[in-house]
Request: fold
Amino acid sequence: MRIIRTITAMRRVISKLRLRRNSIGFVPTMGFFHPGHVSLMKASVNRNDVTIVSLFVNPTQFGPKEDLARYPRNLKHDIQVAEAAGVDFIFAPSVAEMYPEKQLAYVDVGQIADILCGATRQGHFRGVATVVSKLLNIIQPDVMYLGQKDAQQVEVIKRMIKDLNFHVKITVCPTARERDGLAMSSRNSFLSPTERAIAPRLYQALCFAREMVADGQRDASQIIFRIKKLISDGTNVSIVYVSCVGLDRFLPVRRIEGKVLVAVAVKIGNTRLIDNIVVKAK
Ligand code: AMP
Reply:
């Protein structure tokens, strides 16, 4: 496995791979790898000639009061994990390499970027869409692998790819979870033992919502009410949002009909956690 630091060196590698007609799988990440990242890497390794993982903590997707400076990093560990997963190249540019001067051109994906996580993280999805478009232009992969854990991010990127005619396929991988159901996340490392003990409530509440739907509940407000209660009762967890949204444009639904995404975001102490499941009314 090779670590590549510059755009020029990355482009040189890509040109060679293209000449050899190698298919390229691409996994964009911010590092601090856990088994969720590894599942994306392995999906790519299994289906492509070459797998490239980008490792870049992108400053333009963090708000001024967010956790950019303290975002967890461990390049040595990440290199070992990626190598063991069969990755061929890690593209790990510096901030100066990706943003040599003030970025003037941004990718704005409209309304879908302003709801759910976008409502409280202004500019977040604009930063995500912008860095992903830069990475796609550099790497030009055949397939890009994304995690369902960040369902809104998937939707934003799919929309960007469609509207801006990027030539890449998207494969979405299921959310990898700890034994107790907590969705794996680099940010879980911030949780104190007490906070970590509370964190599985997100998934437990989502599973309860699924049972409510299976038992015939169709009123989204009832489901949202129960989820909020299950998560926050007896804790100081602050709910950022609990939402039932349609799968196409992520707009809130009042009734559960067909497939609906139930998404939650909370703050446990200083740590923001998100999770989601798809429920289906028969
Ligand atoms: P991140 O490094 O957190 O930006 O995540 C990089 C990619 O890994 C994104 O496509 C995420 O959706 C995906 N990912 C993060 N956590 C998980 C998880 N628990 N299961 C599956 N994919 C994940």
Q: What stands out?
A: The pocket of adenosine monophosphate is lined by residues 29-30, 36-37, 39-40, 146-147, 149-150, 173, 175-176, 183-186 (CB under 6 Å). The chain has two domains: 2-173, 186-275.
